């Protein structure tokens, strides 16, 4: 059998068992990861919708914001801790739900949850994880015991065609010890041309009929198909909220009016996200949409899509987020150096955050306000 090739046309390199010496930032991990991931999986991971306008804009919108340093602050006792949904967070950086992590490394989510625990970062486990949600929760328990550390463990829910299957996922997550349910509503209808390689599958859904993809060549494009009929609705939100005792978070909101409506339905927090630019092209970036949402609702807001630097974290917090999530960087780091890579990636981002806070004269997260941004001073 011929060796799998990476995007550079070379044989895929296995993950290193130590942190590569030259890596000093998340973009460094992205560069290095090209060597470690098979070409079609790389395109799937990196890709954005259509012209990839949103993908590029997610970065440009962060880059357009300018910071104003404030030296001379007293930084003794400075920290990055906070309480979020009644759970202690050591720092405001979480691992976004990312499907099929064994595409990047044989240990997949088991490695990621070990890294998250070591760095006391929250991890959101995808419905489409390549290990079962129970196995990932068990790995988290082992790591918590071994390291005497912990971070929040939340379950990301995708609705299934039958409500009974959706509810079963919620109940399995509750039984396995997950501490919040995160319902993603922005990606139920999207194109995907990526065929999973042998051995990679949605481990949680082995007994569940798979959902149809949008736009098959020999049928109606979307309207009139089961996919359109089964898309998430407000009614389903109210039903789900009533069926879990856990904090309930909505992921994929960009409109302030929808944010308000979601809170009226009992949602405890929102993740302002455009799914990393993967679903609808030309969409506003979360960092642009955030101020209007922060003005519209009182619940905690998290943000993802394009976060790559500690200064991005500061910018998100300045505009009203409580925390941020990183998506693709966890796969990059996983592919380069397994769980050590993911732990290092989180460590780098947290270090950059603290550096930025120090320069901006912020000793705590609460001190990061709109006045750290030039246009708002
Ligand atoms: C995702 N994302 C995602 N979101 C979700 O709610 N459930 C999922 O299963 C997945 N799966 C997934 C796979 C891959 C390969 C990517 C790149 C992304 C979206 C993810 O949670 C997050 O919103 C974005 O990745 C954030 O953007 P960045 O950090 O990748 O720019």
Largest sheet: 8 strands, parallel, barrel
CATH homologous superfamily classification: Aldolase class I
Gap between N and C termini: 61 Å
Number of helices: 12
Assigned CATH class:
Alpha Beta
Give a list of the ligands.
Answer: ligand FNR
Main sheet: strand order = 3-4-5-6-7-8-9-10
Strand content: 5-15%
Question: What is this structure's SSE topology?
Answer:
Layout: H1 26-33, H2 39-46, H3 53-63, E1 82-84, E2 87-89, E3 93-95, H4 108-118, E4 122-125, H5 133-147, E5 153-157, H6 163-176, E6 181-184, H7 226-229, H8 234-242, E7 248-253, H9 256-264, E8 269-272, H10 286-296, E9 301-303, H11 310-318, E10 323-326, H12 328-359
Parallel strand pairs: 3-4, 3-10, 4-5, 5-6, 6-7, 7-8, 8-9, 9-10
Antiparallel strand pairs: 1-2
In short:
Belongs to the FMN-dependent alpha-hydroxy acid dehydrogenase family. 37% of the residues lie in helices and 10% in strands. The chain has 377 residues and is an alpha/beta fold.
């Amino acid at each position: 059998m011929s060796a799998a090739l990476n995007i550079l046309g070379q044989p895929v390199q296995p993950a290193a068992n130590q942190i590569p010496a030259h890596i000093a930032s998340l973009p460094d991990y992205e560069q290095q990861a090209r060597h470690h991931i098979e070409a079609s999986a790389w395109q799937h991971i990196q890709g954005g919708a259509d012209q990839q306008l949103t993908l590029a804009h997610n970065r440009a919108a962060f880059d357009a914001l300018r910071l104003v340093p404030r030296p001379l602050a007293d930084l003794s006792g400075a920290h990055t801790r906070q309480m979020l949904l009644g759970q202690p967070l050591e720092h405001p950086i979480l691992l976004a739900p990312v499907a099929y992590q064994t595409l990047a490394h044989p240990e997949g989510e088991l490695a990621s949850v070990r890294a998250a625990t070591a760095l006391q970062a929250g991890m959101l486990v995808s419905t489409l994880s390549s290990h079962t949600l129970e196995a990932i929760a068990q790995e988290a328990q082992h790591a918590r015991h071994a390291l005497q550390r912990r971070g929040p463990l939340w379950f990301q829910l995708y609705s299934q065609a039958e409500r009974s299957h959706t509810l079963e996922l919620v109940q399995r997550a509750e039984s396995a010890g997950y501490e919040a349910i995160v319902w993603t509503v922005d990606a139920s209808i999207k194109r995907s041309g990526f065929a999973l390689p042998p051995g990679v599958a949605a481990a949680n859904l082995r007994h569940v009929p798979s959902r149809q993809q949008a736009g098959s060549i020999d049928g109606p494009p979307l309207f009139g198909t089961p996919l359109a009929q089964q898309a998430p609705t407000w009614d389903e939100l109210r039903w789900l909220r009533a069926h879990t005792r856990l904090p309930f978070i909505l992921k994929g909101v960009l409109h302030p009016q929808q944010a308000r409506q979601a809170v009226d339905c009992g949602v405890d927090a929102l993740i302002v996200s455009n799914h990393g630019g993967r679903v609808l092209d030309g969409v506003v970036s979360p960092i642009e949409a955030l101020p209007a949402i922060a003005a519209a609702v009182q619940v905690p807001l998290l943000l993802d899509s394009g976060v790559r630097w500690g200064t991005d974290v500061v910018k998100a917090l300045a505009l009203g987020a409580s925390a941020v999530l990183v998506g693709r960087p966890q796969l990059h780091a996983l592919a380069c150096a397994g769980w050590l890579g993911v732990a290092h990636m989180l460590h780098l981002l947290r270090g950059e955050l603290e550096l930025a806070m120090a320069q901006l004269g912020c000793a705590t997260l609460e001190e990061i306000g709109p006045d750290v941004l030039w246009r708002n001073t």
